[in-house]
Amino acid sequence: MSRHRRKLSKKVEMAPGTGTIEGEPNSAPVKITVIDYDASRYEEKQINLVGECFPYRDTSTVTWINIDGLNDTRTIDEIGQCYSIHPLILKDLQNTGQRPKMQDLESYLYLTIKMMTIDEKTQEISIEHVSMILGSTYLISFQENIGDVFDPVRERIRREGRIRKFGTDYLVYALIDDIVDNYFLVMEKLEERVEDLEEELVVNATPESLSKLNKLKKDMIHLRKAVWPLREMISALDREDSPLIQAETRIYFRDVYDHIIQVIDTLETFRDMVSGMIDIYLSSLSYRMNEIMKVLTLIATIFIPLTFVAGVYGMNFDYMPELRHPYGYFMVWGVMIGVVVVMLVYFRKRQWI
Amino acid sequence: MSRHRRKLSKKVEMAPGTGTIEGEPNSAPVKITVIDYDASRYEEKQINLVGECFPYRDTSTVTWINIDGLNDTRTIDEIGQCYSIHPLILKDLQNTGQRPKMQDLESYLYLTIKMMTIDEKTQEISIEHVSMILGSTYLISFQENIGDVFDPVRERIRREGRIRKFGTDYLVYALIDDIVDNYFLVMEKLEERVEDLEEELVVNATPESLSKLNKLKKDMIHLRKAVWPLREMISALDREDSPLIQAETRIYFRDVYDHIIQVIDTLETFRDMVSGMIDIYLSSLSYRMNEIMKVLTLIATIFIPLTFVAGVYGMNFDYMPELRHPYGYFMVWGVMIGVVVVMLVYFRKRQWI
Amino acid sequence: MSRHRRKLSKKVEMAPGTGTIEGEPNSAPVKITVIDYDASRYEEKQINLVGECFPYRDTSTVTWINIDGLNDTRTIDEIGQCYSIHPLILKDLQNTGQRPKMQDLESYLYLTIKMMTIDEKTQEISIEHVSMILGSTYLISFQENIGDVFDPVRERIRREGRIRKFGTDYLVYALIDDIVDNYFLVMEKLEERVEDLEEELVVNATPESLSKLNKLKKDMIHLRKAVWPLREMISALDREDSPLIQAETRIYFRDVYDHIIQVIDTLETFRDMVSGMIDIYLSSLSYRMNEIMKVLTLIATIFIPLTFVAGVYGMNFDYMPELRHPYGYFMVWGVMIGVVVVMLVYFRKRQWI
Amino acid sequence: MSRHRRKLSKKVEMAPGTGTIEGEPNSAPVKITVIDYDASRYEEKQINLVGECFPYRDTSTVTWINIDGLNDTRTIDEIGQCYSIHPLILKDLQNTGQRPKMQDLESYLYLTIKMMTIDEKTQEISIEHVSMILGSTYLISFQENIGDVFDPVRERIRREGRIRKFGTDYLVYALIDDIVDNYFLVMEKLEERVEDLEEELVVNATPESLSKLNKLKKDMIHLRKAVWPLREMISALDREDSPLIQAETRIYFRDVYDHIIQVIDTLETFRDMVSGMIDIYLSSLSYRMNEIMKVLTLIATIFIPLTFVAGVYGMNFDYMPELRHPYGYFMVWGVMIGVVVVMLVYFRKRQWI
Amino acid sequence: MSRHRRKLSKKVEMAPGTGTIEGEPNSAPVKITVIDYDASRYEEKQINLVGECFPYRDTSTVTWINIDGLNDTRTIDEIGQCYSIHPLILKDLQNTGQRPKMQDLESYLYLTIKMMTIDEKTQEISIEHVSMILGSTYLISFQENIGDVFDPVRERIRREGRIRKFGTDYLVYALIDDIVDNYFLVMEKLEERVEDLEEELVVNATPESLSKLNKLKKDMIHLRKAVWPLREMISALDREDSPLIQAETRIYFRDVYDHIIQVIDTLETFRDMVSGMIDIYLSSLSYRMNEIMKVLTLIATIFIPLTFVAGVYGMNFDYMPELRHPYGYFMVWGVMIGVVVVMLVYFRKRQWI
After folding, report:
1. Percent of chain D at pLDDT above 70?
2. Is the CB of residue C95 less than 8 Å from the CB of residue C73?
3. Could you give the domains of chain B?
4. Do D192 and E5 touch (CB under 8 A)?
């Protein structure tokens, strides 16, 4: 949780206009890749100096500039100047604590979205903040770290797919669709964890189960925070009458919207399942306690009276007529066996054994 | 739950425009039946090649094409081309994870709805995704599997009922009404399960009851997801000013709407009943624990002091005056009986016995 | 609960246009009474043939036709034809599972409402479905069973009260007001049950209390379902610009509306009270368990060590110096009394005794 | 609670137009006081006959008629006739079960509000229903009982304060402000009770705590019912474009509105605090149970094995070699002390002692 | 909590127009500082007499008058007269129980906001009420106590930062931004407390943990009350078409709005985490109880039967054949060891050991 904590405290003690990086500090250098294409041509290169991507600005081809790493404020400022981005937006780009949102700044749209990936081994869900600046002929995406879920889109651009015939609005749709598709993968893993935990709680609950449950709840809170605002954002993109979004692309955003609703529905289903789990744990503990107490009670209630009987005839009084009786010992055994039988019948009647 | 899981993961790693089958894989071949009728004539046949149903397209009679099985993308694409269905809708047809919705595409309406059936033997509720394309003279319905709840409608068409005098809008109403009528059957079975479980939890709760409760909760979550959006969809059908829905049919949709409200009310009632059941289970366990502990406490508190008394006179001290007393033994019995009586009176006073 | 179950399942397997009786089957014949009045005259009779009430149709006097029993579809159809009621409304009349609602069909209004009565002896709340057709000069009311809460209204009509000067809209107000007044009676009985149960749960909770609590919750769910939609219905009656509701009657409907709000407020108050009762039961059980365990612990922790001491000196070793000591026995008693005193002081300090 | 019950049942079995007194029956006679003032003069008197207050009707001075006691229907009717109040309002005046509301009847406004006072000794909160008829030159207030919170207002009128320069709208503001100020007093006492109870539940919870908690919850439910609707009512008074409320008075109503929001905020805070208290009680009981069980377990697990050892050497077998051993007795003590030490180490390791 | 209590009760028994100090009584004298600046010049001084700040009123420079301490009604009244503040606002200034709000009084805006600071040592969160009067060339801020979070703003004014080029609207933005930045610091400390407590509850819960949990919940309730209304207030500032807020400043308020949303999201996340903690505590107690009971049950069920066996052969009957048997003693040991083994196998099977 240290990551979150840092994000919170970093913000403080700075003058309002100063750019702050609120995400994970990332000492790796910024990596910039440019993909430039239209229906007929395609170019892809990795650049080192921001200036190298400026020539693409005034062409009519679609230019997708992807920037991995947010900690190099100078690079971001240079791009901001080149594409005339408002300083507050440049500052916002580095604030990874933001919720998904869409802001229309007339000559461009500013979008933020959470990218989710799941580590196959540790099952850890990692949420990465992605910002996009959508202009009429360019799309600039900013990511916290190297590595993303956009390879299918890159492949389709290379393969000269349908995507090459559309503009930047379809490109932004394709990227968002990729991100949302990965949400389904995360949901799937989450479902496994929910169901495994549910079974564990009924069958063999331990305090570790409780820790798992807490972890699960927290993960779900973070996912909700990442997914819910997306719904509003996509719906705003669809309604928005910006000339940057073509009429024929809108139906695709509506499709993404439906997928997000499906993700939200699934999340809410999990939430409903998880919300009562602590009660399952409690009742599971109670049930086991009952079983333990039944055993104790059975043994104790059978043997305590017998021990008393034995104790009586272990007394050393000078005059105890039973002790002298030739069949005394056997009669006592008879009494004791009788007591046991009565007890057992009673317990059977109460369905304890 | 493997079905749901597969549905989630299948979606991923595919380019946005590609058709994906998200339902249960169904190796059985697609089965196509055509029913064509107007007030005077009626024809029903099962066809093998999609092309066979094309002649019905341009007639003024009502043509109902029913397709069982969604895994044959080619068949769906051919029908799509014949009736000029938008590619995104064709892709959506195969996405069985969608919630019920209605989309107006001007020359036709696209409807999705969940069909519920209950297995008489296993009491398993199965939810099947049904999509419908409603045109002015045709209705194309897509189902995941063979077998549906539409036989009453088919029977009425054959019998030359009122339905033969109406258009496709009444046909779609009749199908939806059939589906909603089956919801009542499912609600009825659900009610039995809710009430049986409630009794079981009070009378004889075991961990299996907990599993049943979880199962019940999950079933109810899925039913809610299937039924709630229907309300909005039917209400949209009623409000919609599409020329495909005749004014005189609207009153029937309003009737279906009232039935859906009734189903939702019933579901919410069950939810209210189920929501507190885990607490009933817990208190039932606590009550039984109390009963067990009372028995243990009774036996232990009566016999432990007596055993102590017996132990005292089992000591081997050379000088213990009581042991020599001729009535010592009987006096000890007197003391012990006295202790028991005092204990019993105390327990009676506390209402434990 | 069998009644509800039947209501649910009956609906199924019938063609959409067929009339279905969803209420309790009622083998008693339908009973029809007609009350016809205006400011100057008054007539009341019970009729056997539906045709007998047709002459009243075209008069300008207020005609109130009351029909007890919904299972005679023929009678309902005849009345429907006489007063030109839409077939779907006639079918709806027999569906007693409907929620309260108001439908404006231009020449008449269709109202449904739930009538509640409480059995003085068994405290059972019975909810009966009442439908009304309100025309300009007639009011037709349909009830499931003989017996209703409308006697005060009949009495006022006979006594030539204010009601005789108004039209059918005031009559329908008077009937609804009577029904709502009876809700207050039901609320009163419910309050008694809520408070009795609350006390029982604190003082002497048993599993039967749990059953009572469940019963109470279910009753409240059903009452809510009956009362909540009424609010919307009356408010619709007030807003409705139908010529069937006179301006001067509207203020009376607003008054009924306020009463319904009062009933709903009361119901919500009860719900708040009941919602935490299961926790009261649980803590009541926990408290009693604590008391039981305290007694067990007191007795066991005092006597188990003493019994051990006695056991030590009951051993038969050849050489045990204490046994030979002339005051050994008394010294042991001293030790044992000392142990008891220490224990008691400790328990007193922990406030267990 | 008998008061509430009576209020509910009284309503029933009466013809809709009949006036009903739903409050506490109050055998004390009605008490009427008139205060008449303008900026220059002031008159205050108690009258016996309603007629005595009629002369003030047509003057331009502000006339405040206060009526304590609602059970004298004749008095109310006379006032109603004098000031032309609608009969339904007159009936409503006596219905003390109403929620706070404002009704605009053009020539006058009808207001109802709940006055709260707290008994210093018993800490009982009593809620009294107050109705007001606000005309252009008169304000008639109706209270259930003698005694109110309006003395500061009376004092200010007598002292020739700012209030004397304003009209009836400022007077009604002053009265409502007085009532709302008293809500703060009640909140303060409530807070004490909430905090005392919270401490009691953690430190020394008994079933009486549970009863207190229930009482507290019920009080809060009643306060909520009294305060929440007030918010809407005052906001309606502010928005209302009735000529009875001057523009310059509106800012005062907005001030009262802010105070009500503050009261509601406080109430909601208490509600949040109280809502989890039953869980605190439960966990407090559980914790104490744990402590009790630890003591029992310590004593029992230490002494039961020792008692067994002592029992073994209390057996009377002819051949038991240890018994003959000269150091047998001491060796047994050694074993027993060893067992105790092992046990204590184990318990220490588990942090039980 | 005495502070809150006083705040509530002070309000009562005062005529509506009278100024009341509802905050902490502060015997320290009022401290007034004036900062006056424009792009070219800057002046800062602390004054003793209110009159000293009047000369700044009619200049076109930005004048920020900061007043620490609210208990000197005369000072406040003088300032009110100088700047023509409405008397009700002056009274409101001293009511520290208000929620954050914005009121537009045409020639000036009245803002209230809660300033939060956290004591590094005690971790106590203190909430201070700040009011601001925003005119076209002046900003008057009122604080309860000396000491605030505005030093960064003062520093920027001194350093001739961007702030010097803007008007009072940017100044008020800078102050609010400072306050909101401090919320993040408080959130960070709160997160530590939430997580520490969560761990404590699972690992080593004691009744003190319960007290901490209560404290945490209360703190969160107070924070919510302070932060939630801020959202609405800032959004009102942005929407407000007052000439006091320049168009170019609005984007900054939108930025602050986003930060507040982030704080609210974080608070809600904590709330979700804390809401189930009492259940974690309960299940943690239950689990420990299970562990304790297992130990007791193990020891008791093993040794109680053995003690009985030993007791049997401690009886003093004249005729007990086993006692005479040369291997009797060893056979008994054999039986006892057998019993232990059976028991251990049984417990192992039930997974208790």
Report:
1. 92
2. no
3. 2-275 (3.30.460.20), 288-349 (1.20.58.340)
4. yes
